[in-house]
Specification:
About 50% of the residues lie in helices and about 20% in strands. By secondary structure, the protein is of the alpha+beta class. It folds into 3 domains: about 60 residues, Ubiquitin-like (UB roll) (Roll), CATH 3.10.20; about 70 residues, 434 Repressor (Amino-terminal Domain); about 55 residues, no CATH class. The protein has a 4-stranded antiparallel beta sheet with strand order 1-2-3-4, covered by helices on one side. The longest helix has about 30 residues. The N and C termini lie far apart (about 65 Å). The structure holds zinc ion.
């Protein structure tokens, strides 16, 4: 059912004249691969000619909304999530595609809204977390352009340094509080200490101290 949003005076591209048009929305079913998806579509209605038409932007929005829903149903990454993975390692769309061994414009297409192939989505999901990306990168290193490898290695080092400082700050917080619940998660987790601490001696001391306080 077409629901009116507002009236506009504009040219109707079908009867080619200035008309009082109605801009509104309606539910539509769109088929995306093997799925039928309901989307809200915006259109114009021309009462003079009794016909409907759509703007280019609204048509694009209709398709992108259907694609987003399709990805959601299939557990696919959305374009901005793919972009986020890529940018984390300071890679251009082309270099990210090369690292993955895909065609040069593949990532550009996915980030622009095209739906990714199943096999490609599996790999993107596989490298979503930092630790998994590192493992994947280690395997691909030898077959990847050295300039790309160098860039990614620099980023990995930078991320690890940041993570270590964050862990360290949390650890300091843990030691300075007397609350038991702040201590327990750290006892079951591996902590990588920053280089300047050298070893885990102080961590061990902290844990014992807090356990004694908790007892
Ligand atoms: Zn018309």
């Amino acid at each position: 059912m077409f629901i009116k949003i507002r009236e506009v005076k504009d040219e109707c591209p079908l009867c080619e004249g200035m008309r009082n048009l109605i801009y509104g929305e309606q539910q539509e079913k769109i088929r995306v691969r093997d799925e039928e998806i309901d989307v809200l579509v915006n259109l114009f209605y021309c009462p003079t000619g009794d016909h409907y038409f759509q703007s280019f932007n609204d048509d694009e929005k209709r398709i992108q909304n259907a694609y987003r829903e399709y990805r959601k149903r299939k557990g696919f990454l959305q374009p901005e999530e793919i972009k986020q993975i890529r940018e984390q390692y300071g890679l251009s769309q082309r270099n990210f595609a090369r690292l993955l061994g895909w065609g040069d414009i593949t990532i550009h297409r996915y980030e622009s809204g095209a739906i990714q192939e199943n096999a490609h989505n599996d790999i993107l999901l596989l490298i979503k977390s930092f630790e998994d990306f590192k493992k994947y990168f280690e395997k691909k290193k030898n077959s990847t352009d050295s300039e790309i490898v160098r860039k990614v290695e620099d980023k990995i080092t930078e991320i690890e340094r940041k993570n270590n400082i964050q862990t360290f700050n949390l650890w300091i917080k843990c030691c300075s509080t007397k609350k038991k619940e702040h201590v327990i998660p750290f006892l079951t987790k591996d902590i990588i200490m920053p280089d300047y601490w050298g070893h885990n001696k102080y961590y061990q001391y902290c844990a014992n101290n807090e356990l004694a306080l908790a007892a």
